[in-house]
Structures are given as C-alpha cells and as structure tokens.
Predict the structure of DNA primase large subunit.
Amino acid sequence: MKRITKTGEVAVASEVGRNSIGGLVSIPDDAIPEEHPLRLNTYTIPPNYDITVEKFEEYAFSRLQLLRAVENASMKFQREDELSKAIKTAEDKWMPLHSNESAGAYSLLEERRRDQAAHFILRLAFCSTADNIRWFVTQECLLFRIRFHLEMSRERSDFLKRTNSHLIPVDPSEKTAVLEHLRKCSPGKEMDDFFKVPFEFVPDLVGRRGVYVHKGYAYVPKGDSFSIVMTRFKENLEFWMERTARELPSLRDDRLLPLLRLASTHFPLCMQNLYRRGLQDNHLKYGGRQQLGLFLKGVGLPLEEAILFWRRLFVPKSGEDGFTKNYLYNVRHNYGQEGKRVNYGPYSCSKVILGSTPGVGDHHGCPFRHASAERLTDMLVGYVGPSGTKLSGTQVQEIGEMANGNHCQSACTRLFEYTRRPDQPTGHIETFSYPSKFFEASVKLTKKAPQ
C-alpha cells in the first residue's frame, strides 16, 4: 500500500512509520515482532511468558476499564462513527495498540503482549458464572469488531490469511473473470473487495442466493465477510470460556478446600456437622444444603467460591452434569441470581431449632435440639476449637444437660466459651442468636489472641 507525503514523496506503509512529531522514519527490520505480527488478535493461543504480580494487576485493571468503556459507549452511541471514536479513545487511554506503521516509534511487542495477557487474565476472572461470561464475550466482541473495522485494509487482509479463517482474498484478475456473476448475486454491494470461503461456511448466504458459488467456494462481499470472522471469534471465545469454567475448579480446589477446613474450626456444632457429613457423603439433602449454604454466604463466601465448593462436594457422586442439573440453580438462587432474585440471609438459631425436624438421611437442624443424647455426646467429644481445645468429660455432661433442658442456644454459647475462652469464667457472653454470629465471634477472638 502506498501513500503520498506532504512533500510529495511516495512511501510504502510496510517500510515507514511516523515519529512522535509526525515525520517519516525508517522501520528497522526487527521492529515488527514475529510473535505478534499484527495487532488484531483472536486470542486462540494463551501467553507463555512470565509477568510480575504488579503487571498482572495493572493489565487486569486496564482491560477491565477498557471493557467498561466499551459497554458505556455501546449504550450511549447509536451511530457507528461515534461508537468507533469513543471506543478508540478509551483504547488509547487504557490499552493502546499501534499499527505496524508506527513500529519505529512504539514497542509493538510490548503493547501486543500486554493486550494478549490482559485478555486471558480477565477470561479467567469472568468464566465462573454465565452472567459474567455473557458480559465479557459481549464487550470483547464489540471491541474486536471496532478494531477490525478501524484496521488498515492491508493488515486486515494479512490477518485473515494468518488466522486460517477460510477467507481467501479474491485477486483482481479472478474478480474480473466472474464480475458479472458477482453483480447478479450481490446487487447493491460494493465491488471492491471479495473473499472466497468454502460454501458450507455460509449456508445462510447460499440459501438466499446472496453469493456466487463456483467450484465449491462462495464469493463473499467484504461487507458480508466480517460476519463470518465475527461469528468464528465469538464461537471460539464462548467455547473456551465455558471449557475454562469447567476445568478451573480443578485448578482451585486445592486452595479453597484447605481454607474451608481451617475456617470450619470456627463453625458452631450444627454447621460443622453439616460440613463434615457433606465431605463424607458427597451429598446433603435440601434442608442441609439450605442451612449450610446460607450460613457460608452469611460469613462471606462469594457466589463464585460457593459454586466451586458445592461442585467439589457433589460432583464425585452426581457427576458434572448431575451437579449442573440438580444443584447449580439452587446455589445461584440463594445468592439472588435466579428466580425472584431475593437476597436471602442466613438462618437464625430460632429457625434452625424450630424448623423442620430432620428425617432419615437428614443432617440439618440443631444438634442440641434434634440429636439423640448419645449422638450429641459423640459430637461434643469430637468437637475441637480453633486452638485445638477439646471439652472435658464434665463439660460435655454440663452442655448435654443444658440441651436436655431445651436451652439449646445457651448450650451452644457454653460450647463456645469452653473451647474459645477456657481460662475465663463462663456466663459472660451474650447468647448467640445466629450460627453466623458464633463464627464471627470465634474468628474475632482468635485474631485478638496473643501470637
């Protein structure tokens, strides 16, 4: 591609660039990086280089700001030129990408690596829920569309060749030979640029006779060709987002479950019982799932981690499809993401005590109210506080007698005192009204303890 400078010189775009004051500069042979020869990227290959934690955070923040700006622009502007201008302005601010013409003035490799890494960082961050995936794909597709349309014609053609998009630019001599057929099949379309694509990739265009088909190829006008590229980009992104969502739990399980096991030492007896039975059986009935799930939500477990926890708990028995079909909706519903989108809170002690009586195979409810004397004794003997404190035989008997007298919340509070404040007098803590308050008080007390 040639262009005329202000002085009348003819310059070849692939051989020259502009410096910061607008003058022409020669582009070194190695200025256009082999690793990222074009700024357009379909993100099919993840980065394989190291970045610092600081850059990781910087890249993620900048990309997120860019995608938010893309979303805002799409809601504010209807005209394509205004939309393109707004997104280009945001891109220049948060994540600039210069063309190969600017190779002498900017580090193209650094810019394109940053763009690639930032995309994959947010892909990991947004793959945990369907809503996040939908938002991320929508903004990335719009950003890709604007970038493609603003790209120079030569680099667009190079991009199509390099990405194996099955779009083959039609050279002028071939176009001249079939020009009459192209005009008949594409009336009103510009006759400038056409691409050949295997006809099976454009069944809609073939079906409505919107393209000329010859020797197995459909001749697609430039205006229609981008829809093929865009469709492939979106399908590829959705596929890998969904696959990452399925595989990410296996990468994070080793981190989450030890944290929950540590946190469970702060659980009251009812929640510790549910947690352990869930781990043991890889299953909890509805009452147990509700009681434990809303408790975990109440003590700060976010939705993404909750889905990960329940998936890890149930998949060994239910399988991935069984978990998605039978349990995922309920988890999301508890967090207000399904149904009436109510923001449910954790069960109070009164609700746990006076709620439905556990049946065979159930583990919900209050052990001080619903467990047999023998079962309660076994649970108390096996209960260990955060610092490793266990109950003495006398303490087990005292708490059991309180439970037998239907003083369930007082018995639970006494359990807290004996296992968290063993050297202090009892009866000085306000009776807990929520299991989540038991947890919060235990964590707070542990943080205050001398190291």
